[in-house]
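Service request form, structural biology core

Requester: graduate student, group of Dr. S.
Request type: structure prediction, single chain
Budget code: on file
Notes: please return the result as structure tokens.

Sequence provided:
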Amino acid sequence: MSDRGTRTYDSLHMGRSSIDLYSNDVGAPFVEITSFAAYVGGSPTNISVGGRRLGLKTALLTGLGVDPVGDFILHFLKNEGVDTRFSPRKPGHRTSAVVLGIEPPDKFPLVYYRDNCADIELTIDDVLAAPVADAKVLQFAGTNLSKEPSRSATMFAAETAHQVGTEVVFDVDFRPDQWHDPRAFGVVVRSVLPLVDIVIGTEDEINASMLTDPTQMQLTHSQVSDTKVQGDTKRAIDYILSLGPKAVVEKVGSRGARIHLKDGEVIDAPGYPVEIYNILGAGDAFGAGFLYGHINGWGWRKSARLGNACGAIVVTKHGCANFMPTYDEVMAFVNERGGLE
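Core staff response, request fulfilled:
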């Protein structure tokens, strides 16, 4: 096992990639949209770009179709400096797409096109070809676990990382419509948590991952998909920590983030209030900023504060990956607002 300080990559990101079509008609109902802007998306892909813009050396493990959409994504990522050598093309499968409406402050409808999706075809062989042991952090998303072969490949990647001393960061990324039964999400998540060091998620995502109450498990597919997942969030966090992770980073929107540690300590990291334009992708911007600080040894609070600042910048923008801030941009933002402390 190599020393983490000598590894080639700061972070390896595994999971979704897509072309994201964002409505240009901000405020218009979805049925009245007349045009879209094309950006790059997918949670781990977004985080890889955000980390790279901040200064991390990032690599991406995703699956892409042999199609122009795959070409579009690779072109953007190569220009950004994200290492895509480990992201295979998957003949016979298509690069995914997402169509998004923007109706601020609280309506952001989105539709996934992930039938026959290339990134779900990631395999154990793809993981073996990737630099899991040559990265300081492996970051993956919950949607990876929704279908095979990506599920087994992701669990294998986490297992390998755990064995070679690569820190494992799990972004919960609960997308109920990507699961055959959203209640299965928690069942699968709980099986991978012993291999995870840090969990990042919202209150709803944390509760969904720990959904074990028999009365909640009796909810129908549509009820779990269409409503907030209720639960005792503190109890859910304690349960997550009991399964292995050393920290749960709870994203609490405009209030920032709370870091829950295994010894019971809770660290508050306040947010940076801004006027919301588009919340889509803000969580990925947070993930990029948090990982930058964490990998550079900034400590929990300061790392989360940087994540909050990145998220605050992106909620004022039209898209996500294409609008991730650079280190200089985010530091200028925080310095105008009292800094990171």
